[in-house]
Design goal:
Distance between the termini: 35 Å
Order of helices and strands: EEEEEHEEEHEHH
Number of domains: 1
Number of helices: 4
CATH class: Alpha Beta
Largest sheet: 4 strands, antiparallel
Structural class: alpha+beta
Strand content: 25-35%
Number of strands: 9
Radius of gyration: 14 Å
CATH topology: NE0471 N-terminal domain-like
Length: about 120
Amino acid sequence: MSDKMIYGEPLGPRVTEVTPIDDYKLLLLFDNGERRVFDVKPLLETEAFKSLCNKQLFNSVKVAYGSVLWPQEIDYCPDTLYMESAPVSEEKVDYTKLASSERKPPKVAEQKAIYD
């Protein structure tokens, strides 16, 4: 757990790494050393997240401010990411299912198109 506090209450673990994996899921590493998987699919039906149905946009996720961030300033609460994700062990991570964009970074022109 983080040693940072807000209004006297400790903050939960914060995201330090994110990897998009198949079926609109995120493999997350938290600052407490835990690896967890968060399923974004249920959120895709909401107005705020429906643009993430675009796989290129979904796969452009990055870590920001202890949470995850996509272009168009789409983000998600780090505490909710932790509480609603499932813990995984290294043995259970199927690295062959990493999103193709994680295997090779997009070209600069593709990055510009994603963030515009």
